[in-house]
Predict the 3D structure of the following.
Amino acid sequence: MFRQFAAIVSPDLLFNAHPFELAWLLEEVWRQRLNDDTTLGNKSIGDPSRRSNLEPTPPYTSTWPPLSAGLQPILDTGELTPPFRWDHLIYAYMVENTRAFEVFRRVVFEFAHGEKLGAPTAESQAWLRNTEELFFKDGAPFFITSVASHLRSDLRANRRNPYQRMFGMELNHGGDDGKPYPYVKADAANNDFVSTFEEFLREVWVGMTFVTATASSNPTDPAKIATLASKLKNMLMSRRQNGNLSREEFSAVTAMAWFHLALEYKNNNDNAPIIQALRAEANGTEQRLFKVAERVGLPAHGLSKHFFDIADSISRILIQIETGDFDFADAVPALYTPVPGPNTPEAAMREIITHWTAITGRDVKARKVAPS
Amino acid sequence: MTKQPPDQDSRPRDTAAAEKPEGGAPTAADRHHPGGGTVPTPPPTPGDLAALLLELLRKINSEVPTTPPLQGRAEDAVTNFASISKDLRTLADGSFTAVGSSNRSKRA
């Protein structure tokens, strides 16, 4: 979510804002979320256009807007704002796999407990306070992002649980000691997600390969792609029934976007204040992460670039799959047919296929070999 | 004695053609085919070759497979994806309005 805010206002304003402002901003995003509850829309709760029916805190009045003037444009009605849509849970899963959360946890820990990393710069003080307030505390009562409680007190375990339920996948790292991270695993989980998604990628790749074929036979199977997309939609939406997991998703994607933005932000050779404080300036999001990780002695994932690069595309494609757009064979050519423009399903699928192959080590571009 | 088919060497020859030096200009015997009297095309000039080449390229280009246009639901899917991407536009997709940060211009 913070990365979407940074498309409207300078990331510096976000980094330097009061934590209450940021918490309130997130509350407002939830209030002004996409919420198609019209009879005509006929959207079930949990749908990408109607994620939840849970209420946020009461709205602020015009006499007391708790936001500073600099952040106000985020809530102003304009080309980019509101209603808001937030990223799919898969975005949080991909970014968390880089180990950015754990690395920054160490950063905050070290700055809070001593001067092993030096004294934090004046500019980084606000970032450190915001980070600790928003992502390493239980959260203020009643706020929509406060998902920690006596029943689920571990913030890190609180994200692993939805990952397991939605995708049947665990993070690629355990705790700091290298042991598997303990969390509650649900019985109702999409254990077929990975195999179905990979089959989907494989079939779309066949479509990409033969999209311009005229002289050869074309093995593209739009009906199969539509069936796989529909299967993915059904399993994801089954976990989202009546808005289930929407709060957890919102909380997870905002947390990961905060750390992603701190690493991603590079403006005229200027970096996020915490990157400057750690002397972790480098070229590229993953290179900055590697440097921060080096400073705190906790290695980030070697394939972090692939995780960062796939995150946006896979989030957008899964949201669209959940809308049911690709349930029909005559719609799926959009997934493998190149069309002009920067944000196209074909370009996103190409990016996903490339990075998924790198991350998993399973080449979805290879044709399946039928056993004889 | 069985009659053998004439071998290559025993066939009647166009002696004039055989005696023509390699790479030489066409002789009268070249132009008058022994069987029909048709006149072979003279060798193409460099200009002819260029024209032929251009024609060939034009033909190849016209046969390059093109992407089939998207219609109906597929076209709608492209529009919807662009809409989702716009909703989720980030700093990586475009610049922010640098409010209150005069020393920072648009993203690098």
User: Anything to note?
Assistant: Confidence is low (pLDDT under 50) at residues 8-20, 96-108 of chain B.
